[in-house]
Amino acid sequence: MTEITRTERDFQRALLHLLADHTFLSLSVEQICQETMMHRSSFYRYFDDKYDLLKHTVNTKITNLIDESHSSEDELENVVDYLCSHKDIMRNLGTSHSNSSLYPTMVTILADIMLTRYENGVNDRLIKTIGTFDNPETTAYMLSASIVGAFYWWRNQNYETSKKTIIKQANKFIEWLTTKSNLNGD
User: Fold this and answer.
1) What is the mean pLDDT of residues 137-161?
2) Rounded distance, CA 128 to CA 174, Å?
3) Residue 60: Cβ within 10 Å count
4) Residue 186's pLDDT is what?
5) Structure pTM?
6) What integer pLDDT is reported at residue 94 of this predicted model?
7) Which candidate, 121, 142, 123, 144, places its Cα nearest to that of 133?
């Protein structure tokens, strides 16, 4: 589990609570502070802006979901389960198309999380795969763009593809990626 202060946790919970009813782009730091009943100075003690809070929130959530897993297959299932059970939040993390200003932000957030996990020696399937390529940073950005793009696609088609199919295809992709990277070492 990711260790965070109670104040950081409260701001993260407030963001998730607000995202149930508001788009991320429409939220202000003031609204987040009101939700936590804390002053803006407390917010800025921990976060640079609402995008930094989003990055920390996503990182904490992904890390906790993966850490709670019993196997590499469980990691993916836990993340997809979370996405399915929090569709309201997921809908509000952007507009209905991938050219929203939040799309590249989400790609960067996910790539940064992957790279940090890689640099810290985290041992999950996707992160291990990054290390098999010559340039882990490029690989992390390519993977994060693929993941965020697939998420936007799934959300935009109103989650019509079953959770089981999403998990199966994601596992096949990770297996394929691992196999291809091990074949030629680049």
Assistant:
1) 89
2) 11
3) 18
4) 45
5) 0.84
6) 66
7) 142
